Amino acid sequence: MTSSPDITTKNAKAPVAETPSSRDDLKLIQFLSKIPWKVLWGTTRVCTRTALGRWIWERYFPAAKRRRKFVSQLCDFLDLHSVARRGEILRVYPNTLVETVMCQMARMTVDERSARFRVEGREILETELAAKRPVMLLGSHFGINRVLPLWIALEGIQLVSIEWRNKVRDMEIQVGDNLRVLEMQGAFRARPTLEALRWLRDGGVVHMTGDNLRHDIEQSREFHWQGYRLTVPMGFAQIAIKARATVIPYFCQFDDLGVAQIRFLSPLQIPGDTDHPDPCVSVEREAILAEQFLQVLTREFAKTPGDTLLNLGRQHSTLISSRKRRRKTQRAEGKREQSEPDSN
Prior knowledge:
Blueprint (H helix, E strand, L loop, with lengths): L19 H13 L4 H13 L1 H10 L1 H17 L4 H25 L2 H7 E4 L1 H9 L4 E5 L8 H7 L4 E5 L3 H4 L8 E5 L6 H12 L3 E5 L10 E6 L2 E6 L1 H9 L2 E9 L5 E5 L14 H25 L1 H39 L1
Parallel strand pairs: 1-9, 2-5, 2-8, 3-4, 3-5
Antiparallel strand pairs: 6-7, 8-9
């Protein structure tokens, strides 16, 4: 069996290059994690909506300067040169960034899309499609990664995407039959998984995120990086191994010229015999595949710490919510156990 990649789980550190900017961002995250969420949210709103607050924010928080640089790149991508429009984008983009780019992309012609998007590693995807092998495009909540399904569909490639909500339908974007979104929200959890598995076994393309904490938190891979805890669900590994799919990780982000850069990376290596009947061996293969993805993800964290701050902050808020729910459940169970002897 293939040996596990050299990334450490649980209490060890991952072998990822460390930069001063990434250390600053992670120290900021660790400091902010100790502040109550309501206080942090209120303070952030004040800092971003007043002139004095914005000056303090940009003076003492290094990530704010990178944030403005990113907004400038986004405005170049959207052809927004008005100061007022740039200010509006700066205020709302963390919540509507993906939707904004998707709406603009849907209006572009083929030539405009070619000029605004630069693609690296496209031959990796085309090779798998030409061989009619099942392909899993594995993304994350990183940069503008979640715009890829729409881009793939506009390029004329049929795919299925597992998402929490169908944003393409909500924004009334017309892509014909090229994109089918399997919604997780309000659905029986196994149904999207089974449909994606069936599509892969027919030689299709499936897109999903590999770092989503909303689903199957119990079946996840936990590791520590720079003192921060991250978790990756095992769902994508289970589907990929069962379908014998080629897993291609990718990243989408803006470059310094405001061009959206899509990078398809080398496929992950699925270890071992996919037909092995032992469930313990299957779990081990899934863990190895998840660790490979973690290794790829942490390399990107080290390269672009601004995206790391946004990504880890979102995951941190999800972790806090899950911990609160778990503590609340434990307290309720403790009270119930205490009341049972009294009633007897």
